Every structure is written in structure tokens, then in C-alpha cells.
């Protein structure tokens, strides 16, 4: 419980001091146990987590606030403390809007009563006392409320904007222009930078004049916020349904997540790798072939040659098993490779055998790799947009949620929801993935969608094709930035199967793998391109053999000996 953690923290810190009082320790424990009885009645789930380290390592600036700290996780960072004056100014304006009903101190006292409920929202222990936490939440909540209202007023018509008082609308516009609107948007959508939504609701009821419709007005404000930051087009029906129940959500990021991500009724089963799709598909990595096929063919060819007893073959056999050749075979490899002619074949032969013998990492190497590096999750095994277009696949945008993703084999059409990319999108998407990885226990729909997009988008050409087909709206500087946006986003702690997305991926792979051009290209890569070291070795060996034969024949006049062997073979 929150109070127990706080008490034990106090106890442990007290015990470190030289003047430790056992009686005070007993009193502190008794008080914490009594307080935890009240805690049992607070049914509040943890909703504000620290982002998994595996994700932070990929891009720290996408998860750590760069301008404003909201809540306790980053409040004491020196880099962000300069912006406290803007939050204090917002709290001062909120105090002016209380209309004498209650002082700002009264707001803080109301928040102090909710201390344990506030602490329950945070996964990490908050090493601050109750009053400090209440002041922090009141000031941060004032700033956040004003900023959300500025988004709401921005999207209203001109008459409504001008009707707002200076302290609410125009001053907010002025402040927003000074500190950077987009940077604040990115900061307030970060998982570690959330404050409980129920505090925002309490504060809004205190400052809003019409108490009976305060929730409705706050719902409208939150609706505009979701429309502003959501990368997907959300239908009005979905927004109305979600905002009617906004009080069930813990914070802004959770509200955005459940507005964007549909609830899928299926059980999640965790998987270790992403690429468990059905159907043949061309990998984006270089496909390593099976050299044993060529080896079997060479063995068969050697047996066939050995079974032939013609005069030329007997002559070649006699040459191969002669003493000089047998000496070379039995001679150590280091001595052979030191010879002028044979040094040419050293590299091809070593490459050939290094492919046959897999390298194994030691336990120490594995441990050292796993300590600092994020988990290596392979991207979904699906062709890129360019490859699919070459195979005849068409892309069609849908204006609904992620459940509309599907592949129609009859019309060879892949349906994808419209997504808009701008300067804020990457932070929003990454923190939605982080929230899902930390909180959601069911199917990780959004993470799987991010994997799908990372799989189909490889280059600028892929982004351009999706934009031309209306699936992607790119407001970034270039298509290259949009292509790099998905990089590393899906390095999640865990992945889960999502039936409708896995079916779509499997259908695409089956169609793509059934194309004759794709089959031929895959066979070439698997059995020809990957066998180049073997072919190079054989070619060099054949070249050396022919050079030796030529040198031998120039000395011993092979033509006369070969004629005698042929005549003797015919005579027998």
C-alpha cells in the first residue's frame, strides 16, 4: 500500500541515523497499518508507469519531457525547473477564476485529502510528503487545464474565441506562442508525465461557473485534445461514446489510447518472435541458402564420374591419385596456403567452411549483450510497400479504427486506416506503445500495428506510395523522416498475437509467395546467391587444376600419351 511504502521509507531513513528511537519506530508502524485499513477501500489501479528501459534506450527524448514536467517523476529535474514560472502564472490565473468560492490553498487542502488515491496511480514510490504532493498536483493541474482550454478555444469559431476573457484565451495564445505549442503537446502525451484525470475534474468543477454541466464541458475540452493529438481519424460516434465515459480513465494518455485502440475480445498469448506468419515470403534480410543441396549434387556428380571407366576418366583418376596430388591433400593447410598458387583459394574455402560451422556466443557475451541493449525483436516478416505494388497489391485507406485492417485476396487490396504524421506523431505513437507494454494485459493491438507499419515501410518510396494512395498524410520535412519514424518503435518488452492482424499478415504473405516471379527470385536467392562461396571455391579449384594440366602437358606432351590411352582402351 502507498502509506506502508511511505512509512517503511521513513522508518528505513530514520534507522540510518545514529539517534534511532525504537518507540518512534513502533508508533510509525502502528499508524501506517491503521492507515492501510482505509487504503483497502480505495480501489485505484496503478496507471502511471516508468517507461520500460528497452524502449527508453531506443530514443530517450521521446519518453522524457523536454520542456514541462507534470507530476512527480520529473518534477525535480534542473533542466525543467526554469519553466515553473509559467505553471505558477497559470495557478495564479486559476486562483482568479475561483471567484472567491475557495482560495487556492483550499484547492490544495482538497488534494491533500486525496493523497493516497494519488499515490496509488503511480507505480514508482513518491518520495515526497502529502502536502508537497498536493501543491505539485494543484499547480501542474492548473497549467494543464489552461493548456487544454487553449486547444479547445483554438478550434472554436472566431466569435467564441473573442468572447473569452483575456486571462483565458488571448493570454493563453500568447503564452503558448512563447514556450512552443508542439513541445508542450509532446510533453503532456508522455507516459511518465501524466497526472490523474480525477484531479483535473475536481479543479475544473471549482473554476467552472455552471457546476451542473461541468463534466459535459470538460468532455468537450478533452474531445478537442484527442482530435488534436491523435494520428488517426476518429469518428464522431467513437468520440462521443468515449467521452461520455471519460471519468473511467486514469489520465490523458490512457484516454487517447482507448479512443484510438479498439477493445479486442480475445486472449493474448505471448510470443517470443514476431515472424511466425504462414505462407512464403521474401525476407528483408539477406536469405541464407542451404548449401547442402549443392553438396548433394556434387556428391552425386562425383559418383557418376567414378562409375565411368572410359579412357579419359581413367587418365584423370590416375592424375588425381598421383603422388604429387596425394602429397598436397595430406599436407597441412597452413603449408598449402603459403604456396603462391594455392594462396588464392584460401579465402573462398575459409568462407565456405565458416558458413557450415555456426558461431556460438559464450554466456558472458550473451550477458553483456543483454544488459544494455534493448531486446532484438525481429520485424514482421512481410514484404515492403514497393514489393507489394510490384506484385499487384493495391492500398485502400479506411476512415475507421484499426480493426478495419484486412487483405482482400479477390480484389488484391490491402485496407489500412488513414494516419497523419507530423512533428508530434512519433512521441505520441511511442508513448502509446509504452503504455500498452506497461498496462494492457490483453492483446497488444497497437504494438502489433506498429510492427506491421515498420514491416511494410522501408524506404522513402514506400512512404510516397502510401501518401499517393491516401493511406498516409505526411506533414514532416521529408519522406525519409517519415520512413525512419517507425524505426525501433516496436522494441517492446513483450508481443502478443492479435487475430485480425495476424490473419491479414498471413493473407498478404500467402498471396505474395504464390506469385511466380517471387518464387523464382526466392529460389535464386536461396540456392544460387547463397552458394557463391562454394561456386567460387570450385571455380578457383578448376582453374588451378587446368593450369596444372596445361603445365604438365607442356612438359610431357599429353597429346601422344592421351592418343595411346584411347587406342589401348579401344583395343581392349
UniProtKB/TrEMBL annotation:
It comes from the Eukaryota. The chain crosses the membrane at residues 527-552. Keywords: Membrane, Transmembrane, Transmembrane helix. This is Uncharacterized protein. It comes from Asparagus officinalis.
